């Protein structure tokens, strides 16, 4: 997958964000992908997932089973 241009993305913070700013932001308004970044470093790198990959990632997090991702 080539690296998409995320410059015009609409980012939103997680509802689980901490008061101290330790949180992630997600951009899901992109064509077929979901991007995730550290809100403290908006100019930094972002993880990019296909929508099915992101759904599986979230499913594994909810099941507390990150071994399924390997």
UniProtKB/TrEMBL annotation:
Limits of the DUF397 domain? 10-59
Q: Which InterPro entries does the entry mention?
A: DUF397 (IPR007278)
Q: Which Pfam families match?
A: DUF397 (PF04149)
Q: Give the source's domain of life in one word.
A: Bacteria
Name this protein carries in UniProt: DUF397 domain-containing protein
């Amino acid at each position: 997958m080539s690296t998409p241009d995320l410059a015009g993305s609409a980012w939103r913070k997680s509802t689980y964000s901490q008061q101290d700013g330790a949180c992630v932001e997600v951009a899901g308004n992109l064509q077929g992908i979901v991007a995730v970044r550290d809100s403290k470093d908006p100019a930094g790198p972002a993880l990019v997932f296909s929508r099915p990959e992101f759904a599986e990632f979230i499913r594994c997090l909810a099941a507390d089973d990150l071994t399924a991702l390997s």
